[in-house]
Amino acid sequence: MNLYLRMGGILMERHNMFSIGEFSRKTGISIRNLRYYDEIGLLVPEKHPTSGHRMYNDKDVLTLQKILSLKFLGYSLDKITDLNETLSLHLKALEEQKKTDRKINEYDKKGYPFTKRRRRSG
């Protein structure tokens, strides 16, 4: 199913979007479980802009695979949720550091003096 979304005045096509029923059939996970995973914040799909229906994408398939793998290894859903939150925080921190590093490199390339490292005297 192709879904078109308006983003910043531009009409964008979204490929590989699945309704909850389609996602359930493709993954073998019941609709009830998918709704529960959404409720506890473990697998939160996008919502259709007008209807509010859950819309799953390819990234959600990978997330579900991680959840199922961790369940298979004996982790509880609570523990998986905690791990997911921790990993998300780490990822955000790494992305912020990457942005900062990129800006510093841009300033260094332009020769701005305030970004040059100064040696400590003494």
Structure characterization notes:
The strands form 2 sheets. The chain has a 3-stranded antiparallel sheet. A two-stranded antiparallel ribbon has the order 1-2. The longest helix is centred in the C-terminal third of the chain and has 34 residues, at 77-110. It is elongated and about 60 Å long. By secondary structure, the chain is of the alpha+beta class. It contains 4 helices and 5 strands, in the order βββααββαα. The chain has helices at residues 20-27, 31-39, 58-72, 77-110, and strands at residues 3-7, 10-14, 18-19, 46-47, 54-56. The protein has one domain (19-113): Multidrug-efflux Transporter Regulator, Chain: A, Domain 2.
List its salient traits.
122 residues, alpha+beta, Multidrug-efflux Transporter Regulator, Chain: A, Domain 2, elongated
What is the first-to-last residue Cα distance? 67 Å
Mean of residue pLDDT values:
81
CATH topology: Multidrug-efflux Transporter Regulator, Chain: A, Domain 2
Pairing-aware structural class of the strands and helices? alpha+beta
Q: Summarize the amount of helix as a percent range.
A: 40-55%
CATH architecture: Orthogonal Bundle
Count of the separate structural domains: 1
The SSE order reads EEEHHEEHH
Strand count, sense and closure of the main sheet? 3 strands, antiparallel
Number of helices: 4
What is the topology, as strand order, of the major beta sheet?
Answer: 3-5-4
Portion of residues in beta strands equals 5-15%
Name the poorly predicted regions. 1-13
